[in-house]
Amino acid sequence: DSSIIRPKVKTGSVYNWNVVKAPSGIDRSSLIKDLNFGTGLPANWEFCFGDVTEDQYSGEYTLAFFIQDAISGCFTRDTTTINIVPEPKAEVLSLPTICVNDTAIDLNQYVELNGKRGPTDGRWFAISLNGDRSDSKLAGAVKNGNMFDPSQGDGAWEFRFQHTATGCYTADSGVLIVKQLPRVTMPADMRVCSTDPPMNLAPTLISPSGGSGIWSGKRLSGTGNSVFTPGSDETATVEGPYNLVYNYTDPFGCKMKDSFEILVQSAPSIDITTTGPGNICDDKTLALDATLKWSP
Fold first, then answer.
1. Which of these, 50, 5, 53, 51, lies nearest to 25 by C-alpha position?
2. Of 5, 84, 149, 238, which shows the fewest CB atoms inside 10 Å?
3. What pLDDT sits at residue 245?
4. Which residues is 97 bridged to in the sheet?
5. What span, in angstroms and rounded, lies between the C-alpha atoms of 175 and 292?
6. Sheet with strand 147-148: strands edge to edge
7. For the stretch 43-60, what's the b/e string if a residue is b when 16 or more beta carbons lie within 10 angstroms of its beta carbon?
8. Backbone angles phi, psi at 204, to 5 degrees
């Protein structure tokens, strides 16, 4: 790039610019162009420091301006320092898909500035939500210039990163998806007998249908702990209720859980206490005594 230098000076003198200091490897003689066609006039001098792709020109330069009186030959000079910074380039990387109940995320981890990830001197702005640039949620959606809390709402959030710390503007944007939590709905609480066979809990789910999560609780087994066994040989130890929890994670990593109860009742048991065998004629009656071990 280049810049035109026009100093304020008196007429009747000879003027000249030169570069007294430049970054290593830079040819100082090629940096100043006299646009006055050798007349010595002060009007136009051009400082040339490469194009936007030539970052080797970045660094500190010291320029000297000479004034010589045309009659006496006396001269003086003054210097100025110019710092050339590389043309900044911001690139927003692929923004993630997150859940509405996730913790706030640092957006800086998803941007590169001149190839270096995680600059701290830029600023993020929310510029649209589901394509709407006037949504009231956009204002103030980004805290401290880089933090975003997904609890502000699900949908497609478009963010722009801006960087002006060098005095040169660069920006890029990307879309972050916030997913709503999956819906998990349990069946109504139920009663079973201790003598009932094992039951598969997956078909009992109302949503998500079938389910692919993990069950937690007592007396569970099988794939995903989805088989509940009501009874055992020790019927006195299986009385409910049993609180069974279903933990579900959707394809985006969003998690939700819900629970319901199964009340297990021991099957009644009858113990005949009359001593046998008993002998009786076919036209007589025999008294039998029995004890009910459990009463519903």
1. 50
2. 149
3. 94
4. 177
5. 69
6. 105-106, 147-148, 142-143
7. eebebebbeeeeeebebe
8. -80, -15
Q: What is the pLDDT of residues 227-268, one digit of tens each?
A: 999 875 454 456 778 999 999 988 888 989 999 999 988 777
d(CA 186, CA 105): 32
pTM of this structure: 0.65
Q: Express the helix, strand and coil content of the chain in percent, nearest 5 each.
A: 5, 40, 50
Q: What is the pLDDT of residues 83-109, one digit of tens each?
A: 988 788 999 999 999 999 999 999 999
Name beta bridge partners: 32: 47
Distance CA 254, CA 248 (A): 8
242: tokens are: 């049993």
C-alpha to C-alpha distance for 90 and 109, rounded to whole angstroms: 13
Tell which residue, 161, 169, 168, 173, has the closest CA to residue 108: 161
Instruction: Give the Å distances, CA to CA, from 228 to 57, 214, 219.
Output: 73, 13, 6
Sheet strand arrangement including 75-84: 13-21, 59-69, 75-84
Tokens of 233: 């040989």
**65 bridge partner residues:** 17, 78
